Amino acid sequence: MNLLASKDNLIRWLDLLLHEHVVIAPVRVQGLTLFQPISKAEEVDLDFDNTTLPPKGWFLPPTETLFSVQRNDGQTKLVPAMVERDALIFGVRPCDARGIALMDKPLLQEPSDALYRERHARTVLVGLSCRQARPECFCTSMGSAPNDASYVDILLTEIEVGYIVQVTSKKGKMLLPESFTEYEGVLPTPPEPRAVPIKDVMPAMKGLFDDTYWERLADRCLHCSICAYVCPTCYCFDVRDYSDRGNIERVRSWESCQSSGFTRIAGGYNPRATKGSRLKQRFYHKLLYFPEQFQDIACVGCGRCIKACPVNIDIREIIDDLQQLEAKSGA
Amino acid sequence: MNLELTQQIRDQARGLLKSGTVKGVIGYERASDGLTARPFFAYELTGTDQLIFDETCSHNLVKYLLDKKGEKMAVVVKPCDSLAINLLLNEEQIKREMVFIIGVSCTGVVETAWNQKSQTLQARCQTCRLPKPVVYDFLAEQEPIRRLEGELYPDILEMEAKPIASRREFWHEQFGRCIRCYACRQICPGCYCPECFAEQLSPLWVGIRIALGENELWQTNRTLHLAGRCTGCNECERACPMDIPLSLLNRKLEKEMEELFSFRAGLTSEEQPPFATFRKEEKLGFEE
Predict the structure, then answer these.
(1) Which of A156, A221, B210, B254 could form a disulfide with A63 if both were Cys (CB 3.0 to 4.6 A apart)?
(2) Strand-strand pairing, A162-167 and B110-113
């Protein structure tokens, strides 16, 4: 049974949730929409296309301390990082929720990433269906949908009189207030994002590793890390020890396969020294290596990389091109 | 699409590729949104049909010459972009004989984002003093060319008038958002160090933390390294996914360089940027 929350009741519920959770929700910051901790429900902007950055930063923060070592009076103490409070992420788009489910695959497989696992266990996801498919969207081709409730605890779908509330987990059920009424109406028809045929992309990639296509594409690529940092499924990081008068902190930060410093290894050798080889790595990881290892393509079709790339490297175009190239070479 | 300029660029590109004068032509083509432009490399004659020019051609293509040092390339440059050619010639990063410059006389480019094109000229175009490239081998021309006379630094003057504390607060808010994707650096024709100071591990100049303190160190150092070198193409600000107003920093230094040294980067390839020169008679600003 679905429920219905009037807009007022939804706001009241959010304020209630703030007592026991860190609530992270879309907030307008200049021209951007960012997931930020809020202190009042009215700070939330629910009229957004999608957020500038995905919610992954609350599971794998841009920067976090993994542990610190403190020295005092000849004593050495190792202090592990702690997740302090339960969190609730409000207004997550279905594609981004799937992004977290995809990050789970490498990060929760044993040996799992302790801080990520801890945050995951203590976070509830309240999703928000998309009323419109944006020009950059292609979620239905990547295993999700504008109204997909599979990866959230609660999914909200806006209708004229408020929000339809679908509860999909025990965690979600426990948070519901009594003010929500039963809703017997039907769910609205979801919008239809652009379809990107993907059936032949894995076999195509296997045959095209040395194709000049990659060099040509790399001509245009700047090798910044925008695509990786706006991606809901990219999870690479760098680790560094900071020391200050005997105290040590081990810090990790987002990093990306596009940066040459990231691929350089001990001794100074860089196995991916050229622009083309790093660009290729991005797409091989998403479209071949990750699905070979974890069964799913590491893309949710949110289109952020398409929108944010300063030189228009468009993953949909690349998926099309690769399949066409392979079809031509096989013919 | 500006048919007049597009045709001249295509004809020129065809001639250069046909005669073997260049290995490739770096220009613009239509982006995947069907609306804006993106960089395009034409290596074959057939590719030249994809070349376009219009008011969405914002990218400064001079950056790509740094990747193609061994091959003679042609490059399409707007007047503002041409300043970066002089910068790179002066700093001996490119060789004049290895570049064929297809200059374009420009009436300004508009604000764009993927699938979005505004009707408004970019702020830098609204005060542009440079209707023709400062260096070129061929000029694709159009009429009429306007010379704009708007105030150059109204936003900088406004910022300078604010008390230090509020400027600091403003920049902390901006730098706090930086995600250190380095798009500002990667798109900048003046940023070409084989290993950026921000990525040197030994010694570690800037840490890996994506957080205010280290972001600020990155951003202020980036700006200072471009003092007297930034040619004002503003691609860094356009590329920034977090909407950090980098032009406020770059143009503040541009203004300082003009006031202190009467120097503007890129106007010629001969004059060294002030920070790359030292004269014995220079005052260092402390007890001498």
Answers:
(1) B210
(2) unpaired
Same domain, A233 and A162: no
Number of domains in chain A: 2
User: What residue segments make up the domains of chain B, in order of their start?
Assistant: 3-140, 154-272
Contact B38 A220 (CB under 8 A): yes
Among A31, A222, A317, the residue with its CB nearest the CB of B183 is A222
Confidence of residue B83 (pLDDT cuts 50, 70, 90): very high
Tens of pLDDT, residues A124-159:
999 999 999 999 999 999 999 999 999 999 999 999
Could you give the dihedral angle defined by the CA atoms of residues B155, B183, B240 and B58, in that order, rounded to the nearest 10 degrees? 80
**Domain membership flag for residue A196:** no
Same domain (yes/no): A213, A157: no
Q: What is the pLDDT of residues A85-118, one digit of tens each?
A: 899 999 999 999 999 999 999 999 999 999 999 9
Helices (H), B149-279: 154-161, 164-177, 183-186, 212-225, 235-239, 246-261
Residue A165 and residue A20 share a domain = yes
Residues in chain B with CB shorter than 8 Å from the CB of A240 are: 204, 207-208
Global pTM reads 0.95
- Token pair listed for B30: 């239509």
Taking contacts as CB-CB distances below 8 angstroms, the residues of chain A near B40 are: 220
Q: Which domain holds residue A265?
A: 201-330
A194 found inside a domain: no
Name the β-bridge partners of A253.
A63, A238
Residues A111 and A63 placed together within one structural domain of the fold: yes
CB contact under 8 A, B241 and A229: yes
Condensed to tens digits (0 to 9), the pLDDT of residues B201-234 reads: 778 889 999 999 999 999 999 999 999 999 999 9
The half-sphere exposure of B146 on its side-chain side, counting CA atoms within 13 A, is 9
A306 and A274, same structural domain? yes
The percentage of residues in chain A with a pLDDT greater than 70, rounded to a whole number, is: 99
Mark whether A107 and A69 lie in a shared domain. Answer: yes
> Which residues in chain B have their CB less than 8 angstroms from residue A307's CB?
113-115
- Residue B28 is which amino acid? Y
Judgement on whether residues A119 and A19 belong to the same structural domain of the protein: yes
Question: Tens digit of pLDDT for each residue in A221-273?
Answer: 999 999 999 999 999 999 999 988 888 999 999 999 998 888 888 788 888 88
Query: Cα separation of B112 and B183, whole Å?
Result: 17
User: What are B19-59's pLDDT values in tens digits?
Assistant: 999 999 999 999 999 999 999 999 999 999 999 999 999 99
CA distance B39 to chain A (A): 6
Let me know if residue A192 belongs to a domain. Answer: no
Query: For residue A259, which residues of chain B lie inside 8 Å, CB to CB?
Result: 182, 199
Residue A263 is assigned to a structural domain of this protein = yes
Q: How far apart are CA B215 and CA B18, in angstroms?
A: 48
Is there a single domain that holds both residue A21 and residue A167? Answer: yes
Query: Nearest C-alpha of chain B: how many angstroms from A223?
Result: 7
- Residue A214: burial class (beta carbons within 10 Å; 0-12, 13-18, 19+): buried
* Strand pairing report for A162-167 and A63-72: unpaired
Mean pLDDT taken over chain B: 94
A52 has a chain B CB within 8 A of its CB: yes
